[in-house]
Amino acid sequence: MEFSAAQIATFLSGTVEGNPETKVSTFTKIEEGKPGGLSFLSNPKYTHYIYETKASIVLVNKDFIAEKPVAATLIRVSNAYAALSQLLMLVEQYKPHRKGIDTNAFISASAQLGEDVYVGHYAVIEEEVQIGDSTQIYPQVYIGDHVRIGRNCIIYPGVRIYHECIIGDNCILHSGAVIGADGFGFAPQADGSYKKIPQIGNVILEDNVEICANTTVDRATMGSTIVHKGAKIDNLIQIAHNVEIGEHTVMAAQSGIAGSTKIGSRCTIAGQVGVAGHLHVSDGTVLAAQTGIISDITDNTSPYLGSPAMPVKQYLRSYTVFRKLPDLQAEIQKLRKELNELKTKQAE
To answer: How far apart are CA 16 and CA 187, in angstroms?
Structure first.
């Protein structure tokens, strides 16, 4: 499908700078731009590409000021990245929506499926499962007993959803995600062994949650592990038993949250962050990459960095000292030697 700059600007409530009849039929990165492609500029690091890109249309923020001529037609919008997201979502809506039940899927007679549900090859849907309208269950998905899944969800191939778990509306679970495996609960015994503690809770994913590939969300020991509405969880993340993730919190890859920790709403957790158990992280907290959290965070006025974590400015000041420690040690040894020499002279 082709769209003109004028049509795109109307959809995005933007303004055209250049030829409003310029047409595009695909998306392209600004550094790899090609004729007929639409790109965007939101990160200042990529500004230099706009003067050389071959993309036909580029979305830019309203406050963008060109320092040199730009060949592409520009569409000025309030937020170029958000505008691109709107366009990508529009394209996604035009993709064919799968429906129907593939012949070799297994669906228990007691399961209840809504209208326009798709179930792919070798998917297994167990006893008393409820699936809402227009949800897509791709091949080789396993859905355990008494699971409830809402409307308009996408469950990609190879997802495993254990018994009793609850998935809200408009959720997306990517391949390899495991929802509701046992939490890591073991009681130490007198002989030094460990005895398994039954995990009898479940997992609740509220509406509009996305769980990416090979991420695990463990079931609660009792009660529920909860990922609240709008949260986005990246690949290769571990969310332990009885954890609670607040609304619209985002977590990047390889992070881990230990048991019974509560993460607030609208938090940003970067890659490889580790959060210890039984803690509370306040709303709006930002945790930089590889941060280690070992105590509650109640002040969200600064991002946190380091392990153990500290406000980023304090960490950077500390790091300035830390990286000079070898030089400081050499200087101290030199001063100690000089001091010893002075003491020896005084003794003489």
So the answer is: 65
Encode 196-215: b = buried (16+ Cβ within 10 Å), e = exposed.
Answer: eeebebbbbbbbbbbbbbeb
Helix, strand, or coil (residue 109): coil
Catalytic residue among 241, 248, 278, 280: 241
**Does the 3-94 domain belong in CATH 3.40.1390.10?**
yes
- What is the edge-to-edge ordering of all strands in the sheet holding 292-293? 106-107, 124-125, 142-143, 160-161, 178-179, 216-217, 238-239, 256-257, 274-275, 292-293
Q: 172 falls in which pLDDT band (50, 70, 90)?
A: very high
Span 50-68, pLDDT tens digits: 999 999 999 999 999 999 9
**Region 326-343: what's the mean pLDDT?**
90
| Tokens 């959720």 found at | 171
For residue 94, name the pLDDT band (cuts at 50, 70, 90): confident
Q: How many CB atoms lie within 10 A of CB 333?
A: 10
- Can you give the C-alpha Rg of the chain in angstroms? 27
| CA separation for the pair 285, 269 (Å, rounded) | 8
Give the contacts of 5 (CB within 8 A, at least 6 positions apart): 16, 18, 19, 20, 21, 22, 23, 24, 57, 73, 75
Check if 241 is active-site.
yes
Q: Where are the domains of the chain?
A: 3-94
In this prediction, residues 251-257 reach a mean pLDDT of 98
- Lookup: tokens for 246: 């607040």
Give the model's pLDDT for residue 91. 84
226 bridge partner residues: 204, 244
According to DSSP, the residues that pair with 224 across neighbouring strands are 202
**Residue with tokens 């390899």, as numbered in its chain:** 176
- What mean pLDDT is predicted for residues 279-285? 97
Instruction: Check residue 92 and give its pLDDT.
Output: 81
